[in-house]
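User: Hey, quick favor. My workstation is busy. Could you predict this chain's structure for me?
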Amino acid sequence: MDEPKRKAVVLLSGGIDSATTLAIAVCDGFEPCAMSVRYGQRHSCELEAARRVADAFGVSVRIVVDINLRALGGSALTGDIEVPKGRPEHDMAEGIPVTYVPARNTIFLACALGWAEVIGAHDLFIGVNAIDYSGYPDCRPAFIEAFERLANLATKEGVEGRPFRIHSPLITLSKADIIRTGLSLGIDYSLTHSCYDPSPEGLACGACDSCILRRKGFLEAGAQDPAVYVQ
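Assistant: No problem, here it is.
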């Protein structure tokens, strides 16, 4: 008789990184439980992409958490700040851009941790990446390591000897390597959404940091980007 699979909470935004992370969790033998977050983001069409990806992987346990980070502001993704367009890659690698959402991954992981404790999961997956990223401090290995320590200090499960593990399988991969990995695992990237500033019809702008990194990744991976762009 086969043993039941271990549950894992996977943060699923609907982008390339989270979709690939979900595929890795499945490949590693976990039963994925998908959490998406509606946080007041201007690119809320990513939630529909998350639904499509979860459907494609047959994820039966999933939730969407509502958190109004727009009330806090401070980001081009949650406020009336213009999303930068056409930035050179060297600019993306320097400083923290206005698309940074204050404390976003801390809040997301805290919600994922709470749900994991409720449903009996001790593994959390997040698709953060410290190579092809836009300068976000909450996408770095030190943050993930610190949050894992926090998780095991601040939960009933942790203090009673049932520790949590935070998995960030993409953290040292380039965008091209992420895409290659996903394609090898059978991901249909046409289901995903990456753009920070999509058109009202949901078409990608092609010029924000996220679109630029996506297009660069597909080019370097030698694969065709299935996203539909305004330009």
